[in-house]
Write a structure and sequence with these properties.
347 residues; alpha/beta; Rossmann fold; Dihydrodipicolinate Reductase, domain 2; 2 domains; 11 helices; binds nicotinamide-adenine-dinucleotide; binds (2R,3S,4s,5R,6S)-2,3,4,5,6-pentahydroxycyclohexanone
């Protein structure tokens, strides 16, 4: 039986997810869409899908079994809470929410409901190269992870939409989540360094370097550029006690001509992570069909929000900003990874 999905937010990523749910993946149908711009929703609605003005009407509609939220970050909390209230599985694009208080309200609602319903759109966890990188770290053959370098470069950002806070409260959440997942660690402190400012980004504070201090003592160095012009370039390298494991360069045709030898770089996240988004939804469709969620949880959304909040504070203070988390509810108890077990043995 097909999973009937309603999509809230039909902008860039909403349209890309409509394409993958209607043209790429099976076992799923898009039966409803909603956007504050009804014209946009109508223009991109798949044939036969109902178009709603009000996202809450979409959420409770009996033509919708599960919801995909692709609206702007500040709208996510209200829509997530409405989905939990309706008992419907919900895939929510990152950032899950935009403040610690919001994240705690989502966790509280889901915990009271008693079953995971929320999956957060941290698609890197579904990328084959990141999964292989994690597998290498988890086997423990390189020893404990000590440092991770996460490079996150965007060619450009949409005019008008980006503010100087967005590298920290919108972009950094991906690096925070993938670091926690790869290293099986929790971030307990954040520092921010602002290098010489690029003139390409106009009013943006760009680039940014963020240091994430992890519970184990490992340090993550994140480099964020949101206007680097040459392409979308994502890199990752984990330095362990006896070796280093890195993401490979994406295979691309090597062109040799009068200008030299070169390979194309993805234009944006849609191209770089196309298979990861497909896999993320393949796994979500199965879980949502069973009335639940898989992969990045509301807890992970909370943890990445705390990192973003601390990074914003660190810009102001110029120093180290500590992170304190609530006790993890049993609903989010993870399987302990091999690297965690190994680090405990070393300690
Ligand atoms: P966008 O501006 O292109 O589209 C957002 C859409 O949501 C717009 O059509 C807007 O009208 C609609 N919207 C806003 N508030 C709404 C509300 N309250 N109710 C209904 N509709 C509403 O933005 P985008 O680039 O598609 O990003 C959307 C979300 O997806 C953001 O949270 C963004 O961070 C996230 N995103 C994730 C990735 C990823 O790699 N996982 C990539 C891009 C964007
Ligand atoms: C965008 O919103 C995303 O989520 C992309 O994955 C990220 O790389 C980009 O920096 C964000 O603007």
């Amino acid at each position: 039986m097909s999973l009937n999905v309603g999509i809230i937010g039909t902008g860039m990523i909403g349209q890309d997810h409509i394409r993958r749910l209607t043209q790429v993946l099976s076992g799923v149908a898009v039966t409803a869409v909603a956007d504050i711009s009804k014209e946009r929703a109508e223009a991109v609605a798949p044939e036969g899908a109902a178009v709603f003005d009000d996202p809450k009407a979409l959420i409770v509609s009996n033509t919708v079994d599960a919801v995909v939220i692709c609206s702007w970050g500040p709208a996510h909390e209200e829509q997530l809470l409405a989905c939990i209230d309706a008992g419907k599985p919900v895939f929510c694009e990152k950032p899950m929410v935009t403040s610690e208080e919001s994240a705690l309200r989502v966790i509280e609602a889901e915990t009271v409901f008693g079953r995971r319903l929320v999956q957060v759109g941290f698609m890197r966890r579904f990328d084959a190269d990141y999964r292989r990188l994690k597998a290498v770290i988890d086997t423990g053959t390189l020893g404990a992870p000590l440092m991770y370098k996460s490079v996150h470069r965007n060619a450009s950002v949409p005019e008008g939409l980006y503010t100087s806070d967005m590298p920290l409260n919108d972009t950094l959440v991906h690096d925070a989540d993938i670091s926690r997942w790869l290293l099986s660690d929790e971030v307990i402190g954040v520092e921010v360094r602002l290098p010489r400012r690029s003139t390409v980004g106009k009013d943006l504070r760009d680039p940014t370097i963020v240091l994430l201090h992890c519970e184990s003592g490992a340090i993550v160095i994140v480099e964020i550029s949101v206007n680097i012009a040459y392409g979308y370039d994502i890199r990752g390298e984990v330095s362990c006690e006896t070796g280093v494991a890195a993401l490979p360069n994406r295979p691309a045709t090597v062109v040799s001509d009068q200008f030299g030898i070169r390979q194309a770089i993805p234009e944006d996240w849609r191209e770089r992570f196309i298979e990861a988004y497909d896999q993320e939804f393949r796994e979500w469709i199965v879980a949502a069909g069973q009335g639940t969620a898989t992969g990045p949880s509301a807890w992970d959304g909370y943890a990445s929000t705390l990192v973003a909040d601390a990074a914003l504070r660190a810009v102001e203070s110029g120093g180290h900003e500590a992170i304190t988390m609530i006790e993890k509810p049993a609903l989010y108890a993870d399987e302990i990874s091999l690297s965690q077990a190994m680090r405990k043995e070393i300690a």
